[in-house]
Specification:
- By secondary structure, the protein is of the alpha+beta class.
- The protein folds into two domains: 57 residues, no CATH class; 310 residues, Outer membrane efflux proteins (OEP) (Up-down Bundle), CATH 1.20.1600.
- Helix content is 69%, strand content 8%.
- The chain has twelve helices and four strands, in the order αααααααββαααββαα.
- The N terminus is likely disordered.
């Protein structure tokens, strides 16, 4: 009994040593520990000697990146933001400060996939128990699956699909962050431009107010016109203050997302977003979810059916042989359970089709809105030019004594409103294009993500 116990303990110790060696992912530390245990230091030294002519063995992550069409598609995406532009600088600054919680999820999924890639190997472990007589019984448990109806393969496919889902979510998270930053920058730029226009309007209207006050003092004009002008001046000052506050708030929030201050950046670049630039990320995510759902269905189906494994215990009591096992006992509802599992595949395919339809509808809507806003912006520019021509004409007539001050003020107000409308439409086009780029996932290069 004592000899058997020592033998089992020795086997268990060796199993623990082997487990420690196998857990060293690709490093030489595990082999070194194994060499110390077996007394083969020279052999370990030869293993640790670098072979400069050998080709590095691809890692599990490299294999996934090379074989996954979804991950390759994400990597091939290129940003639509012009290189070196203000938008490009904003995107780079906010990504450098990104905590990237989604990246941690992706790393975790990759590790789970690497662990699942070895699930076909036999499992070993110690079994130590104390008998009623006070004797210590130690055995080594060995289990090797021979046939499992595709469960192990399904688990490997599920783990890989889980990596793809995490990769798509990382791309979504990155594009959402860049989109938020560019929205803030665009809001600040629009507010700044409107505040500048309000400053010019305030200057001109103040001149009209001075002329009117002098006319009222001389008894030429009614004081009610002066009160109206001063009311208009108060409204212009209020609009200017509101835009300046909006600019400061947007820049402060943007700086909080960035690794460096971005308040000195000026200008908005012109860029285009082709609807066919890339597959919408929602569709890509639905496809990855479908692959994962199909793999999970395979695992669930295999769990309903019996499998065959070989193994047993080695030590004080040897017991090796074949074993038929199943996680779920067969019953009258087994057939319905299998059909329900198969139905999940069809449901996943329908979700992909629905995601594709929703994305196409949303992109078509944005494309139409961009075209409409661009046309309206062009019309607003033409109307602004016409309003300026009318203002110049009224100013000449006023200088010639043919127009009253309030006549010129009314035309000037039309010109100022048209300028503000033109600025609003211009930035509306920018926002719609940013939204389309976010949906397509092309606000950042795939290699950077």
């Amino acid at each position: 009994m004592k000899n058997g116990t020592k033998r089992a303990l020795g086997v268990s110790a060796l199993a623990f040593t082997l487990t420690g060696c196998l857990s060293d992912a690709g490093g030489s530390g595990g082999f070194a520990e194994l060499g110390k245990t077996l007394g083969t230091s020279d052999f370990v030294a030869r293993l640790k000697s670098p072979d400069l002519t050998a080709t590095p063995k691809p890692t599990h992550e490299d294999k996934i990146n090379a074989e996954s069409e979804i991950i390759k598609g994400l990597t091939r995406r290129t940003s639509v933001l012009p290189g070196g532009s203000t938008f490009d600088q904003v995107g780079a600054a906010v990504l450098a400060a990104n905590s990237r919680a989604a990246e941690a999820e992706l790393r975790s999924a990759r590790l789970r996939s690497e662990a699942a890639s070895k699930n076909w190997l036999p499992k070993i472990g110690p079994q130590i128990s104390l008998t009623s007589l006070g004797s210590l019984v130690a055995n080594l448990v060995v289990d090797q699956v021979l046939f499992d109806n595709g469960r192990k393969k399904g688990e490997r496919e599920f783990a890989i699909a889980d990596v793809e889902v995490a990769a798509v979510k990382l791309s979504q998270d990155t594009n959402d962050r860049v989109h938020t930053a560019l929205e803030l920058y665009t809001t600040g730029a629009e507010a700044r431009e409107k505040a500048t226009l309000a400053q010019a309007t305030l200057k001109d209207m103040s001149r009209f107010e001075w002329v009117m006050s002098e006319r009222v003092r001389g008894g030429v004009s009614d004081r009610s016109d002066l009160n109206i002008l001063r009311q208009k001046l108060a409204e212009i000052k209020s609009d200017q203050a509101r835009n300046l506050e909006l600019e400061r708030t947007s820049v402060a929030e943007l700086n909080a997302m960035s690794v460096k201050p971005l308040g000195d950046l000026r200008g908005v670049p012109d860029f285009r977003v082709p609807p066919s630039a890339a597959q919408p990320l929602t569709v890509t995510l639905a496809q990855a979810d479908k692959t994962r759902a199909v793999a999970q269905a395979k695992v669930d189906r295999a769990s309903q059916l019996p499998g065959l494994s070989a193994g047993g215990t080695v030590g004080d009591s040897n017991n090796l042989g074949l074993q038929v096992s199943s996680d779920t006992l067969l019953g009258l509802g087994t057939g319905a359970s299998l059909r329900a599992i198969e139905a999940t595949k069809e449901a996943a395919s329908r979700r992909v089709a629905q995601a594709n339809e929703d994305a196409n509808r949303q992109l078509s809507k944005l494309e139409s809105q961009i075209a409409a806003k661009a046309r309206q912006a062009a019309e607003a520019e033409a109307l602004t030019t016409q309003a300026k021509a009318n203002l110049d004409l009224f100013q000449r007539q006023y200088d010639a004594g043919q127009r009253q001050v309030m006549d010129v003020v009314g035309v000037y107000e039309t010109f100022a409103r048209q300028q503000q409308s033109q600025v609003t439409l211009k930035y509306d086009v920018v926002r719609l294009r940013l939204e389309m780029a976010r949906i397509l996932g092309v606000l950042a290069d795939g290699t950077e993500v």
